[in-house]
Amino acid sequence: MKVMEKTIETDHPNTDQEKIATVTRSITEHGNYLRKRYPILQHQNALGASVMVFSLAGMVVTGGLYLTGYIPAWMCILINALLTSFIHEIEHDLIHRLYFRKQPLAHNAMMFFCWLARPGMPSPWLRRNLHFHHHKESGTDTDVEAWITTSGNPWGILRLLKLMDGFVFGFLNAVFAPGWRQKVRLLGKIIRLNTPFGLLYWGCWYVFLGYHLYVGFGSIIGAEVHSSAATLALMDVVNSAVVILIAPNMIRQFCLFFISSNMHYYGDVAPRNALQQTQVMNAWWLWPFQLFCFNFGSTHSIHHFVVRDPFYLRQMTAPYAHKVMAEAGVRFNDFGTYKRANRFSMGHSQTRSRG
Predict the structure, then answer these.
(1) Cα dist. 298→169, 176, 232, 303, 315 in Å?
(2) What GO terms in the biological process aspect are recorded for it (predicted)?
(3) Which of 68, 256, 336, 343 has a CB 3.0–4.6 Å from the CB of 348, allowing a cystine?
(4) What string of DSSP letters covers 81-149?
């Protein structure tokens, strides 16, 4: 009888931890099955490096085609936004040491090129600890990574602006922090996290916005704007950088943060409970956003159960994983999260929020 009771309990898990263990085991076993069925998946390092080289080379080629006039600016921006979404997934896998774990030179070189292609983000080496903590304490008050993507904030114009411009978001948080010591500490952290590439990235973006707003306003009021040869030469460089690198990353980051901040629950999540940490967001109307963050809303929840699988394998396991996760109680397309400021509790209204 005792043996039978144990078997029934295993086959029909009751507690959340039992359900989590069942989901993790099932997805892991399915991933192993796919690796055996498609032997190429066993060459994880080569696949990761190939995607990396393809994406970087694609950005260089697309940028060259734009500079030589073969493609318009909008096409360059959209193509590079797609390519940077691949690079983001590669960086995320690298943070979990899924490529070249035992070859630090190759591993760190890939990390560096990921950072170079997405210069508006902090160093991936600095982000690693934050991300590991995100997995341990996802959705709790100490989950800084979730908070950075605006999870837990009431929806409105302010949250939308934060999603569009992370640097201003961080700067305003520092300015309005209580006490000058806290202000100085936060400002120092922002500068440290954005040195050196982030400062160049955001500086270039604000020069671009400032100059074109100035010229546009002058045109509206009928005033002639005369720019020096040096200014025009500088703006040629700035405009090119915006089209090839900055605007694509702005689109990618907005789409990623919009999806990520809404699929993660925040504020009332039970500690280390993967059933409550995320939901699956795969409604058809989200595809314009999913397109530029590599279907993040549909597959990232899988990662909270099984960390070891790279991003392309999560895409392959998704149909099976979704069934297992749904049976365990993971939510799908819970758009009430917009009204609840990402609270897990269905009866929770917008209350406090950080930032």
Answers:
(1) 27, 36, 44, 11, 8
(2) lipid metabolic process
(3) 343
(4) HHHHHHHHHHHHHHHTT-SSTT-HHHHHHHHHHHHHHSTTSPPHHHHHHHHHHHHHSTTSTT-HHHHHT
Residue type, 68: T
Residue 333, Ramachandran bin (φ over 0: left; ψ between -120 and 50: alpha; else beta): left
Helix (H, G, I), strand (E, B) or coil at 320: helix
The rounded distance, in Å, linking the Cα atoms of 234 and 206 is: 13
The alpha carbon dihedral of 135, 260, 110, 242 has a sign of negative
Give pairs for 34-42: CB < 8 Å, separation 24+: 34/313, 34/316, 34/317, 35/313, 41/313
Going residue by residue through the chain (355 aa), what tens digit of pLDDT does each one get? 333 333 334 456 679 999 999 999 999 999 999 999 999 999 999 999 999 999 999 999 999 999 999 999 999 999 999 999 999 999 999 999 999 999 999 999 999 999 999 999 989 999 999 899 999 999 998 888 888 888 998 998 888 888 888 787 777 777 777 888 888 888 888 888 888 999 999 999 999 999 999 999 988 888 888 889 999 999 999 999 999 999 999 999 999 999 999 999 999 999 999 999 999 999 999 999 999 999 999 999 999 999 999 999 999 999 999 999 999 999 999 999 999 999 999 865 544 433 3
User: What is the DSSP annotation of 235-276?
Assistant: HHHHHHHIIIIIHHHHHHHHHHHHHHHHHB--SSPPTT-HHH
**71: which DSSP letter?**
S
Residue from 226, 287, 230 nearest 258 by CA: 287
Listed in sequence order, the residues at least 6 apart from 149 whose beta carbon sits closer than 8 Å to its beta carbon are 163, 257, 260, 261, 264
Q: Where are the domains of the chain?
A: 2-338
Within 10 Å of residue 131's Cβ, how many Cβ atoms? 14
0.85 exceeded by the pTM? yes
